[in-house]
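Appendix B. One record, verbatim.
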Amino acid sequence: GVIPRPPDWVWWILGGGLVVLFGLLGRKEDQKLVDLGPRVVKSVELPLTAPMVMESLCALGNAKMKVPDDIRLLMDPHRDGPGVRIELELPRGVTASFVMERREELAAALRRELGTVWPSVGRRHPGHLVLFVSDQVMAQAEQEPWPLLNAGEVDIFTAIPLFTNQRGAWIKLSIAYASII
């Protein structure tokens, strides 16, 4: 006798069944074949751009700062050590201290962790904002070794490094004239 050739769809079903069978036989005992449970997706931080910062500043709720075009960009976002720095001139009547008081809201608007967003007053005038957004939360960043650790003798009448700022740079202070001792 002659054995009739089966239709093509039979081969597809047979191949799919073999894949499932070998998948079941080759899996670990405690592993599910298919896991359709909820997934946690790690968020990807977008690079800091000037329009993003201007829109975030407008979201702080100041009546004088509602349109991003009212904010003047003095310096584009650029790398500054362990983070990104941007300098802005706020609209008339809006001070940088207003932004500093709302650092938490600014971090939420920028979609960054609170420990990475550091606004400060610039040198020009009270409406000059310098924003530093670090790559890593300040509390988790590794600090350089203290320069006085192996210094031996220290002159308290000259400025010595005692503290670090948000950028990780050492801040020097003359402790003899600062009423610390």
